[in-house]
Structures are given as structure tokens and as C-alpha cells.
Design a protein that fits this description.
It contains six helices and nine strands. It has about 200 residues and is α/β, with parallel strands linked by helices. The longest helix is centred in the middle third of the chain and has 15 residues.
């Protein structure tokens, strides 16, 4: 994806799923792990800086993936919640790319993520210039989401299980959305895995 703006990508894959009992990042769908699927969808868009944040069972995950172009950073505080991974990923992206304009955040357990979702998000962000653009699924908004430099200080203030969605309640935080069909389906339990397997056909 060509752009005069400097955009980094951060894949948040540090969390563990206590209800699943195994790394959800390594659950397979249509012949590849969910984490590899996410990385592949990002890969062809031509982003210069790509960060992969690992934490829970990171050695097991690293042994089964090829980071190919992603800088792997480890969130040792992953048990503190999503905010810690956002901050680790953002700081790594800022360190990697001087003059960073935007950061695009993804998670590793959205099996129906497509490149088109990311292209629409980035396009909205770059043409409408909000502080952030979120994916919209049903009545909810969330990741993937992209944030302008002006939002970085707010992201770095997140705590515990707070995700970037909290920013929409901040004063004068303007944001856009792009529809992501099936974006609300993620993998946290064996029942989720069973449902996913039924959708492979």
C-alpha cells in the first residue's frame, strides 16, 4: 500500500486464553494458523514497519511461525491485560520508524480478516483525518483499528484490560468506522473452535 504517510502495523498476539487451554494464535483455519493468516493479510500491503507482540507461551508460538519481516517483541506483562500489549507494540513501532504518522493495530484471532478490511481502514484514516478509525461489527467497534500520531499519548495511558476502544470516550477524540463483516467472531473457547471448523467449507 503506497502512501506518503508513515504507517506501522502492530499485531497484538500476547494474550493467553485460559478458557481454551492452548494458544489460540495457533488454532488452524483453512490450512493455516490464525496468527499466520493475520500476518499474511498484512504482508502484501507493503508496510515498512511490522511489529508482532507476543507474550503468553511465546516460545511455543515462535517455534511454529515464520516472522518474515515482522519484528518480534515480547510483552512480559501480558497478564496485566490488553493495554500492556498496546503500549509495548506502539513503543516498538515508534522506535523502529522515525516520524511515524499512524499505527494500525490488529489481533491474531479474527479468522475472517481480509486485506480489504485493512485497505478500507487506512483509506478512511488518510482521507478523513480522524484521530482514529475502528472496525465496526454489529453494534460494536474494535480492532483492526488505526490511529494518528495525535492519539499516541492516549494509547500510552491505557491501563489493565482497557483496549483502544476506550479512546472514543476521551474529550475531543474524533473517530471514523469501517464495516468488518464477521469481525465480531474471535476464538476464546473450544466451542468457538468447533464453530470455526464448521465454517471451513
Amino acid at each position: 500500500m503506497s502512501s506518503e504517510e508513515n504507517i506501522a502495523v502492530v499485531v497484538l498476539a500476547a494474550g493467553g486464553s485460559t478458557r481454551l487451554g492452548r494458544p489460540k494464535q495457533l488454532v488452524e483455519f483453512k490450512g493455516k494458523t490464525l496468527l499466520k493468516h493475520t500476518m499474511d493479510e498484512v504482508d502484501d500491503l507493503g508496510f515498512h514497519t511490522k511489529i508482532l507482540v507476543l507474550g503468553a507461551r511465546q516460545e511455543e508460538i515462535q517455534n511454529k511461525i515464520d516472522p518474515k519481516g515482522f519484528k518480534v517483541v515480547i510483552n512480559t506483562d501480558w497478564e496485566q491485560g490488553m493495554a500492556s500489549s498496546i503500549k509495548v507494540g506502539l513503543k516498538a513501532a515508534i522506535a523502529e520508524e522515525e516520524g511515524l504518522d499512524h499505527v494500525l493495530f490488529l489481533v491474531s484471532d479474527q479468522p475472517f480478516l481480509e486485506r480489504a478490511n485493512l485497505i478500507k481502514l487506512v483509506h478512511t484514516q488518510l482521507t478523513q483525518h480522524p484521530k482514529g478509525t475502528y472496525s465496526k461489527y454489529g453494534n460494536s467497534i474494535g480492532v483492526p483499528a488505526i490511529f494518528a500520531r495525535e492519539a499516541f499519548p492516549l494509547l500510552l495511558k491505557l491501563k489493565g484490560d482497557e483496549g483502544a476502544k476506550k479512546l472514543i470516550y476521551a474529550k475531543e477524540f474524533d473517530y471514523g468506522t469501517e464495516t468488518f463483516n464477521k469481525g465480531g467472531f474471535d476464538v476464546d473457547t473450544e466451542e468457538d473452535v468447533r464453530q470455526l471448523k464448521k465454517m471451513e467449507a
